[in-house]
Amino acid sequence: MTRLFALLALLALVKLGAIATLAWAPSLPAPAQAAQDNASAPPAPAAPAASPANASDDTPLPVRLQELREREQALNQKEASLRALEEQLDRKLQELKALQAQVQAMLDKADVLKDEKIRHLVDVYSNMKPQQAGQTLESLDEAIAVKILAGMTGRKAGEILSTVRPDKAAKLSEALTRLQTPFGTQ
Q1: What pLDDT, on the 0 to 100 scale, is given for residue 163?
Q2: Percent helix, strand, coil in the chain (nearest 5)?
Q3: Treating both helix axes as pointing N-terminal to C-terminal, what angle do 61-127 and 130-139 enclose, rounded to 10 degrees?
């Protein structure tokens, strides 16, 4: 179960990283949009001739535009692949959530079955003679014995505990005070 939560956390971090990358990636206007914007905008002033500010930038404008278009295309491809990865992560996350729900349902069912078995044992031990039930409880695991005693009426549990060795009865009594029963006492 812990590994499932760790995997869910890892997937969430990867997804957040992909989203953050998309959010912080610089976006360039599409070439068609840029051309449309340029058509409606007033004409730009002519580029100044080789001035000291532009001296290091001696790449021709058409080459720079081509480089920018290629860069934009590469960014668009990366963005598309990140979206695909995000969708894949979403699907995996949904699968893991479904699996987690199945595991939780199985655990809940196991708890219900365990409670039913304990209730059955409570009925069995309640119907035994106190001496016989006490001898049997002494040999049981302490946790199970405590759950059985907790499910009985106080009078019946007292009758049985009176037949158990004093040291074992003391341990069971201490454990009874710490127990929170998942099912109601009778």
Answers
A1: 93
A2: 75, 0, 25
A3: 140
Residues 6+ apart with CB under 8 A from 160: 125, 130, 133, 134, 137, 149, 152
Angstrom distances, CA of residue 63 to CA of 15, 29, 35, 67, 120: 36, 17, 16, 6, 85
* Cβ within 8 Å of residue 153, ≥6 positions away: 126, 185, 186
Angle, in degrees to the nearest 10, between helices 142-150 and 61-127: 70
Q: What letter represents residue 8's amino acid? A: L
Six-digit token string for 61? 């404008």
Q: What is the pLDDT of residues 83-105, one digit of tens each?
A: 999 999 999 999 999 999 999 99
Q: Is it the case that residue 41 has pLDDT exceeding 90? A: no
User: Is the alpha carbon torsion for 40, 28, 73, 12 positive or negative?
Assistant: negative
Buried b (16+ CB within 10 A) or exposed e, 41-76: eeeeeeeeeeeeeeeeeeeeeeeeeeeeeeebeeee
- Tokens 């179960």 found at: 1
Extract the tokens encoding 108: 């809940």
Q: Are 160 and 137 in contact (CB under 8 A)?
A: yes
The DSSP output letter for 54 is G
Dihedral, 110, 116, 119, 124 alpha carbons, nearest 10: -110
